[in-house]
């Protein structure tokens, strides 16, 4: 992300944790986060799971940025799942 540009996924990890605490989203949250590339130019990738099922994936220049993006995906996917349940 270019310098001076705000991260559109900022605070999504905290928002997801709040939703879990308020039982709006149910499940045990885990992140698998790793980096790739040379040390001076690393890209971080994070996979967010609820009860061992992948619900989100993110990528960013820092570990937190990748986890925030994955958290955003979890919230969006859970909202879509709630709007369009399987079998209806």
TrEMBL record:
Listed A to Z, the keywords are: RNA-binding
Q: Where does the DRBM domain lie? A: 11-80
For this protein, the record's Pfam families field holds: dsrm
GO MF term (any one):
RNA binding
**UniProt superkingdom:** Eukaryota
What positions belong to coiled-coil segments? Answer: none
State if RNA-binding is listed as a keyword: yes
Checking InterPro entries in the record gives:
dsRBD_dom (IPR014720)
Protein name as it appears in the record: DRBM domain-containing protein
């Amino acid at each position: 992300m270019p310098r001076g540009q705000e991260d559109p996924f900022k605070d999504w990890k905290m928002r997801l944790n709040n939703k879990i605490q308020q039982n709006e989203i149910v499940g045990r949250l885990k992140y698998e986060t790793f980096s790739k590339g040379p040390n001076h130019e690393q890209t971080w990738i994070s996979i967010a799971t609820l009860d061992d099922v992948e619900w989100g994936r993110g990528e960013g220049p820092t570990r937190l940025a990748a986890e925030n993006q994955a958290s955003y995906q979890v919230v969006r996917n859970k909202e879509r799942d709630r709007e369009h349940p399987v079998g209806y």
